[in-house]
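Priority: low. Protein: Homocysteine S-methyltransferase. Input follows.
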Amino acid sequence: MTGTTTTLATALAAGPVVLDGGLATLLEAHGSDLTSDLWSARLLRDDPDAIVAAHAEYYAAGAQVAITASYQASFEGLATLGLDRAAAAALMRSSVELARRAADTAPGSGPRWVAASVGPYGAVRADGSEYTGDYGRTVDQLRRWHRPRLAELIAAGPDVLALETIPGAIEAQALLAEIDGTGQAAWLSLTCAGTRTRAGEDAAEVFALAAGVDEIIAVGVNCTDSDDVDALVALAAQASGKPVVAYPNSGERWDAQARAWAGEPTFGVDHVSGWIAAGARLVGGCCRVGPEAIRRIAATVH
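Result:
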């Protein structure tokens, strides 16, 4: 049930909390067409019930936190559907309501939270640049770009913002500056290779940027090979002094040109105990990680 008085930050202090898996992964498995540049965000308008059903399936599998379908939503992107600014804003806010609906109706018990996804600037470009950070944008430019959709998602009343798949320090600085002082709980999650960000920086230095931002309740990684997560969890815990979030992808690689996944999966639920031992308190999966894996993660955690 939602409506619990326990905040997610309080729950993390008590022990590990289970995140969901890849939303797009499950929507595609159920037959949704996600070939547009808007990815799962298109379904906010075209098939909201499919989004509710996917969230509910993850909650039923043992996830305690659902990450909304707003990752790729932007005013520019939604304009390609013919939506004006007001309609686009309403659609972004609806992503939180859909996840709440799933939390209230899915089988199972216990507290459930909703995380409003804030994807990187590169995700909206739909050219794979979220995996390089090669935007050619300054901190101030990224702050101005993120600000209006952050305002809409905060207004929707999520329990937490998921500032996720952030490829480098410039975008992390922009988002942290925008969140600082808002009072809105958030986590910051980088995408990394080895112990470096996708933009090539020392991940520990970027994790440390969040140390003094009270709104950040967890720092860590997502959309990262699970083989790299043990080391990154330890670095995040030490550098930020905060609980750690870890939700890697399957280990396959996204080919933006072919719009397809390549390579072999490396994700192993057996890794989860190691992440928790290293300091992870929010654990789940990202791209290509589905409900069965989340069910096994929940069993490990509980």
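Residues 85-105 form the longest helix (21 residues). The chain has one domain: 20-301.
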